[in-house]
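Consider this:
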Amino acid sequence: MKKILPIQNGLRGEIKIPGDKSISHRAIMISSLGNSEVEIENFLLGADCLSTIDCMKKLGVEIKIDGEKIFVKGRGLFGLCEPTEILDAGNSGTTLRLLLGLTAPQNFFVTFTGDKSLTQRPMARVIKPLTEMGAKIFGRNENKNLPISVLNSGKKLRGIFYQMPVASAQVKSAIIFSALFADSSTKIIEPYPSRNHTEKMLKSFGAKIETSGNEIKIFPAENLIAPKKIIVPGDISSAAYWIVLATILKNSEVIIKNVGINETRTGILDILKKMGAKIEILNQRESGGEISADLKIISSKLHGTKFGGEMIPRLIDEIPALTVAAAFAEGETVIHDVGELRVKETDRLAAIVEEFNKISPQSFDSTEDSLIIRGGREKFFAECKTHADHRMAMSLSIFGAAANGVEIDDESCVKISYPDFFDIF
């Protein structure tokens, strides 16, 4: 149990947030395919990213952790080894889905498992295109769920044309990894552009990838030339909690340092500005193809809004935090096309309605793929459940801090993406 008390006098000062989770995963995997040692700075030492390190070690990669720095000794594009153990992705959907794409072309057998939550999450969406490429993948529940085994007899995968039914960076990345090993080029078309960290990082390693709007074309590679160093920007998904809290708490002025502002991830900034938030982007810089900056947040009066469609892939992980902002806005906010939230660590859409209504009764409602928030209603102290979901835990915490307090049942789940969250609080 963790009790969060109301914050009375606003937030002031500077906050440094942990490294981006999505980029940390990819930095380990792609560096493992390079031709030399890579130093990764500002790596996120959260449980999900540590699951990726554990899996890559079992695939034969030498990885050393030295504080916040990680040293990865690449084995080359064709150097991964058959593991002698089952690979455990823990709670990490990113680890599992991306490694399915990375191991599908390899000439060895591998089996994946995960925790109770991950065994219930859908994997057919990534298995389908990999199977079209010729991968041999076998899973429980008609190839939909863990445990999942991959077996390649040494036959090269085929390059394919794949039109994705849903914009998903994880599915796209899995296809891209397999496409590096295919017999011809692969073309992917997304309904909307999703986060593009895989494309950017692979390009920095010399891979030939062409992008145009919603289209990505990947060419087979012979090798990847690793940079000496990758600096991981701060995670905008982790920054989202402080951005929202500083916005809705009166008398707040906060600088959030070194936040990644990749154009496929800044939807929360665009929507909050549309709602009236005062957000200033300072000191932009670039490393490894990724842009980062400092964000200045000043408390603001918000108004409701409506959005959906192509905006959703740019802020899908920030929806719970953004929902808190909407609860303090004037008027109604409607968020469409968020059915993807139902297949996260929990049914996040249902959890938001169930738990947030305990703090602000009758303020939250949902349909199958939409969320409705009626802002400005009375708020109370409440005892809430996190549903073992790190983003629910942190969103409930900032909700309580800006309202009349909250008690959550499980604080430990934040270790998935933000181990120091409550220390910063």
In short: The longest strand covers residues 278-287. The chain has a mean pLDDT of 96. The chain has 14 helices and 23 strands. Residues 258 and 397 are 23 Å apart (CA to CA).
